Amino acid sequence: MKKDKKYKEIMTAKELADYLKLHPFTIHKYAREGKIPAFKIGADWRFHRRYIEQWIRQKINYNITKKKKIF
Length: 71
Known about the structure:
Elements: E1 10-12, H1 13-20, H2 24-33, E2 39-41, E3 44-48, H3 49-70
Antiparallel strand pairs: 1-3, 2-3
């Protein structure tokens, strides 16, 4: 994935929400539930870009594999 200088290596929930085109509440919910790679600094969630991109690739691969099994 091409590096976009707008997004830092470590992102806040708001930055990640912008990056993924999701609502910040959804990002917080996913982080709390362990559905997205995240870590806390105090009360704030942070997201490492490399792990988010890896998570995205895993989701894409899962969806491709799932579709192949259907057809």
